[in-house]
């Protein structure tokens, strides 16, 4: 069986077509390129049950991924993260069927591993020797680590204010790390110049077409884990919004394959922080694109993106599925995060907690019905965030004993 059913790339705005067998960046019109597949042909030869014999990683969907030759795959075992029922939290929120897709289990600790796995594998297939990426965080860490494994040189440019942990991850991977006294947009400009000067592949968000294909596999997995039933609502903490665009693309492809009900699409919810909510603002004003959000700030650094290149695609996904966009406060995110960890034992990241909080609010407002099947994407593990919890406790000396425990059964 053919490894990939990829046919070509096409522009998300002007529909210009490009071949997928050489390095491509943006369309000449400046918009991102999307990957197309021969789904009609694939539908004839592949059935859902054929997947059952395959490995439990995202490469089980290889026909729907862009890598042509399995030898080019660079993998750290990414994909097939658990879809966990959240019973206690669901009953607290009055949502009967609440699930968490837990991307905290992914290599590198976030779902960025999916984009890096496909992006780096395809770069490897296209003969790329060096790539450059501006990043605020987890994407830079993931692309660094996958590049190390592939033997590709990675040049990573990080704003000075990005979390220290990311610097350490990138530096540990042996990437060429540069710190900019500026914003992610400044890092982006330096990356673009370096790409031209040193013949590097510019893998900034959506400037190469394959990262989205990796993130798309979250959608395939959710459908497969629900036995090919389509959920009612998917809540996603959106920065660049790539994951949301990607999961929507996944469900459209599954519909064309005839693997899920072609009349039902999940409603997509983009969740942002109040300190950086350009997509929410655009959605509230019924706009097709967002505006740059000045002075953006949130402790959920994964969703601190003041202007996304693919904002129009995120908004399109929301409009086309009757979804919505919602901003939540940092303070409340932290409260919800603690609550989730204590109630369910799930050490979610603040971005994931923001999506849970949004579900709570949408249920309270009546937008979400009690018996709807709701999926929260927890995009990463909470351990990646410095947390002062437990740091101010009194310390026992060797030989001391515990005097009192207030909560024994
Ligand atoms: C990158 C990131 C996001 C946002 O992802 P997009 O697909 O770019 O919107 C959310 N959470 C975490 C933890 C991230 O690292
Ligand atoms: Zn175009």
UniProtKB/TrEMBL annotation:
The UniProt record lists the Tryptophan synthase beta chain-like PALP domain at 74-380
**Top-level enzyme category:** lyase
Q: Does the keyword field hold Phosphoprotein?
A: no
**Which cofactor(s) does the record list?**
pyridoxal 5'-phosphate
CDD domains assigned: Thr-synth_1
Query: Which EC numbers does the record give?
Result: 4.2.3.1
Note one Pfam family from the annotation.
Answer: PALP
SUPFAM superfamilies (alphabetical): Tryptophan synthase beta subunit-like PLP-dependent enzymes
Q: Which UniProt keywords apply?
A: Lyase, Pyridoxal phosphate
- UniProt feature coiled coil, ranges: none
Q: Does the keyword Lyase apply?
A: yes
Q: Which PANTHER family match?
A: L-THREONINE DEHYDRATASE CATABOLIC TDCB, THREONINE DEHYDRATASE, MITOCHONDRIAL-RELATED
What family classification does the UniProt entry report for this protein?
Belongs to the threonine synthase family.
The protein in question is named Threonine synthase
Q: What is the protein's species of origin?
A: Siminovitchia terrae
